[in-house]
Amino acid sequence: MSNSRTNPKVDEFLSKATKWKEEYEKLRNICLDFELTEEFKWKHPCYTFNSKNIVLIHGFKEYCALLFHKGALIKDDLIQQTENVQAARQIRFTNVQEIVEMETILKAYIHEAIEVEKAGLEVDFKKDTEYKIPEELQNKFDQIPALKAAFEALTPGRQRAYILYFSQAKQSKTRESRIEKYMEKILNGKGLKD
Q: Mean pLDDT across the chain, nearest whole number?
């Protein structure tokens, strides 16, 4: 299927797809029913409206999915890939039949996603103050006021990276050792990856 609105890079992507080929093609046809521009971003078919990302088709080992870039503004029952993903949401499929059965719903979602974009709605990202500071870090702040001051002087992104990294450790002991390891960096005003 090729019309003026299809992107040769997506044609190529589909021709090389070994897994989810049929599913990708079906999802593509659904997306092309809308006035969306077919692009190829992050190595995947991406559909845009006025240069804004609306929906992306992607596949994983266990499922393929339609990812709504501002899915958080559309429906509550879309899947949040990980708790750190704030705006995007996905609908997952394991076979083409599921896509066929959901076609009407998918089209309603895509329509709504386009409306969200037309209305200029933005996802209200969590402020860094809403990220919970791990207890171990808070204890260090209490012991070493200079560490707290240095941490608060970091950019919001750097603060968030540290909080997420420290919080991801399951055990308190691991969280403590991670904090110990990075204290020097924080005191020097450096981010996790600097």
A: 89
* Residues 129-167: tens digit of each pLDDT: 567 888 999 999 999 888 988 898 888 788 888 988 998
Please tell me the class of the 8-118 domain: alpha beta
Q: Write phi, then psi, for 37 (nearest 5 degrees).
A: -95, 130
Domain boundaries, the chain: 8-118, 128-187
Report which secondary-structure segment, H or E, holds 94: none
Burial of residue 153 (number of CB atoms within 10 Å: 0-12, 13-18, 19+): exposed
Backbone angles phi, psi at 74, to 5 degrees: -95, -70
Q: Is 133 in contact with 152 (CB distance < 8 Å)?
A: no
Average pLDDT for 6-11: 96
Report helix, strand or coil for 113: helix
pTM for this entry: 0.65
pLDDT at res. 33: 95
29: tokens are 């046809």
Which amino acid is located at 97 in the chain? Q
Q: What are the distances in angstroms from CA 22 to CA 19, 140, 177? A: 8, 54, 48
